[in-house]
Amino acid sequence: MRRLMQLAAVAAALALAAPTPTAAFSGFGTLTATATYDGEMRFSVQLPGGAPEQLELLLRFAGSDSTVVAPVDPGSSSAEYIWDTADRHITPNTTIAYRWRATNGEQVTLSPEKTLLYDDDRPGLDWHTAKIGAATVHWYGGAESQARHFGSISADAAAAAETLLGHDLVGPIDIFVYDSRDDFFGALGPGAREWTGAATYPELRTIFMWLGGGSSSYLETTMTHEVTHVVFRDATTNPFHDPATWFNEGLAVWSEEHSAADQEGNVRSAASDGRLLAFGGITESFPIGDQAARLAYSEGATMVDLIVDTYGQDAIAAIAAAWRDGAGDDEALEAGTGVPVDELYDTYFASFGAAAPTAIEPAPILPSNVDKPPQPTAPAQVGESASPVPSPSPSQAPGQADDNGAWIQAAIIGGILVGVIVAVVANRRRGSRTA
Ligand SMILES: [Zn+2]
């Protein structure tokens, strides 16, 4: 009996000591990804030989130069990453390129890259599509005739913008036509303004239209305007900077009628009130206030009109080409017009009988005249190293936060949202004009 127990103990010890058959990472098996709109994106990968020491999912969203890196805890033979899109909104029709990265010691292994289309597959939206020119129009319900009409307008608008800008579209455009307000705003996600009637995401080459967003002439004009933005993006994209906002918006407004005649009154009345905006002030973004925002569109459109009238339509293509080559705004405008940019601005303001606006000096901030309540006295410092004001610690830098890269995702989403602001502002202007 005692000998048996000894044997059992030895056997148990041997079992503990014996190497268990550990799985070793041997490369990636099948990659899959699925998505449900306003639900989740789910990425899976098989690990036939076992899990690596470190596993990450790399995601690149269409229109963004950044990569989202998501650390993933693998199982013994597979791994999965779920992005909750009800919580972190993704615009429909976004293509996401994904691949997995395994790290074992010094060895880094990348899976092949595959793509997932995050589309609007909500129940009840039985999408139909038709290809018209460079556009694919998508509609559901009974909106086929309107959708096809938008398609043909977009083809005309794209052709006109291509001629003007001397550059062709570099890819197709998708136009989604929503019948109901709820469906439309469900696609735009949180943060969309309630007066929005259409939205364009140039980096996704996608335009969302709501049939109830305005009169049919408003929707047609909007389509021309938004398609011009997509062609403009293709004609000017460069790795260095975005072209001046006033030019981008001004060209889109000018393209609606190939004229800025209906914008001149707005500029003239601002000139007589001394309210004109310097172009340098509407280069990065437009004012938030409705009146100033509309003035920014009007100044942009009338400046484009002045350039076309004075220097010819070829000047527009030359300006776009300079931007495409990486020129700054001043260089690009001079490349197209042949005159220094200050002279161009002076000519513009003189045509409205005004001088170029000058910068307003900030008023000095006077010393506080507030009576402070009694302040607690600072505790005596202990030791020489004590510092009364904690200085920012390098470990607090976002790149080293221990939130598993959530900050990167936030930055990416922030970047994606930036792209649509132009369209949203445009629609406010347009909405208020047609309201
Ligand atoms: Zn616009």
Class based on secondary structure composition and strand pairing: alpha+beta
Helix content: 40-55%
Q: Can you give the mean pLDDT? A: 84
Question: How far from one another are the termini?
Answer: 97 Å
Number of discrete helical segments: 11
Radius of gyration: 29 Å
Uncertain segments of ≥5 residues (pLDDT<50)? 10-21, 382-435
- Assign an overall shape: globular
- Let me know the number of strands: 13
Strand content range: 15-25%
Give the names of the bound compounds: zinc ion
Describe the biggest sheet? 5 strands, antiparallel
Compressed to H and E, one letter per element, the order equals HEEEEEEEEEEHEHEEHHHHHHHH
Written description of the protein model:
With 435 residues, the protein is an alpha+beta fold. The chain is built from 11 helices and 13 strands. The strands form 3 sheets. Strands 3, 4, 6, 7 and 8 form a 5-stranded antiparallel sheet that branches. Strand 12 (198-201) and strand 13 (206-210) form a beta hairpin. Bound molecules: zinc ion (ZN). Zinc ion binds next to helix 4, helix 5 and helix 11. Zinc ion is lined by residues 225, 229, 249, 252, 422-423, 426.
